[in-house]
Amino acid sequence: MRVQIVEVGPRDGLQNESAIVPAAAKIALIHKLMAAGLKRIEVSSFVNPKWIPQLADADEVLQGINRSQGVMLSALVPNIRGLERARQSGLTEIALFMSASETHNQKNINKPIADTYPILREVAQEALAIGMKVRGYISTVFGCPYEGNVPLDNSRRVTEALLKMGVYEISLGDTIGVATPKQVHEVFGELVKDVTNERLAAHFHDTRGTGLANVAAALEEGIRIFDSSIGGLGGCPYAPGAAGNISTEDLVYMLHGMDYETGVDLEKLIEAGAYIGQQLGKELPSKVLRASLASKPAG
């Protein structure tokens, strides 16, 4: 059985770092991730640089990447202006994003959910018209930092709206890392009835240490696409206390141990994690990365 991994570290991971990582280092990281066998990499975001200065160099990063056959690069796009930048950069896939909870959507996008739909619809229509693929993210599916529990019907409504816009795949996000396997079974168990499991992905954060357990639960519900971040980088600027995404190294180690195929070379992946850890000058959360680095002789 095969599992697809969507690497979001260069975008979701680095956007939450206080230090600005140079474009050259981001490009080198992306090349290392490609060398490790990752076929889907979210490389940046075309949001206004004043909101996320860490990704202000999106155009430069895209220009510097050596494109590889069979590797799909993508970026977040919030509006038509961002779509035009993505088009000029040569991308063939973009991602739209919104929240299942009203307050998080307001703080994240600065608009209520109802006012977000027309903007995303316009972006999706334009993108599809020029031959791009469009992915969708739904944040706070499993809990909101401002509202607490988020009713499943919220996620169902947003999922339905995004699919009508022509989005080919929807990533359901545990933005603040509150989900448990029981909740994952409940959410995916219901949503796969509305949407085929091939069109749903899971995006877990490990704030409370349940990230990989939630992956195992989603696998049992037939989910075969998972977002993860190299080294466990990440968080959410609008979700106080949110830890990083599940680590790509930890995810690959677990999946291989469960006899799933990923097409990813774990040793090369660890090299990529070690590289970005060095660039940031700190130890990253990934347990597999830490174990690997600890077992290597000094010098």
From TrEMBL:
Q: Key word Metal-binding present in the record?
A: yes
Q: Output the CDD domains linked to this UniProt entry.
A: DRE_TIM_HMGL
Q: Which Pfam families match?
A: HMGL-like
Domain annotation Pyruvate carboxyltransferase: ranges: 3-270
| Keyword field | Lyase, Metal-binding
Enzyme Commission numbers on file: 4.1.3.4
Highest taxon of the lineage = Bacteria
Q: Which GO terms describe its biological process?
A: ketone body biosynthetic process; L-leucine catabolic process
Instruction: State any single GO MF term.
Output: metal ion binding
State the similarity comment. Belongs to the HMG-CoA lyase family.
Instruction: Output this protein's name.
Output: Hydroxymethylglutaryl-CoA lyase
- Source organism (scientific name): Brevibacillus brevis (strain 47 / JCM 6285 / NBRC 100599)
